Amino acid sequence: MVDKLPDRPSEEHPIIAGLVALVGVGLVVGLVIGLVVLAGTKVLGIGGDDDGSSADEQASIYLPTPSKTSEATDPETSLAPEGESPSESEDPSVSESPEREITLSASMTEVGPMEQFQLTGVYPMGEGAILTVQRMQDGSWVDFPATGSVSGEAFQIAVQTSKSGVNRFRVVDTDSGLESGEVRVTVG
């Protein structure tokens, strides 16, 4: 006797075979679309953070060290009363430009050899200026291999050194030659 091989299910039930194929294709397409959406949210930064960090942990703020200023007059007493114009003896075309000054501070005053610290400061009207770091060596200021630029009237320059002892740093505007005061950082 010759046994007859059983027919395939697709030949017996073409509708069921079509539904199984449709469900399989739907699952594959859904998986691919899901992976594309997941990758897109990661790239665009949409959704929650997986690492548990928050905006507060990533945010930073720079507050310069307070320094004494010259005594200023009360702003209300220096303004002309409403409706009155400045006296004729004042020449409105001549105005004093405020003195440009670079303030400088160090993020740490004591560091280990080759431990990174930041030189930060404020440079009013210095937008876009390139600042070169200098270090006092043998009684004169020598360029140090670190530079930074001013953005929003502020700057931050990363510095590392292995020279132990007290190191004196300052920054200089490469275009105007304007110099900041010095800061001291003890290494070692």
From TrEMBL:
Ranges of compositional bias, category Polar residues: 66-76
Transmembrane residue ranges: 15-38
Alphabetical UniProt keywords: Membrane, Transmembrane, Transmembrane helix
Region Disordered, annotated ranges: 47-99
Protein name: Bacterial spore germination immunoglobulin-like domain-containing protein
Originating organism: Nocardioides endophyticus
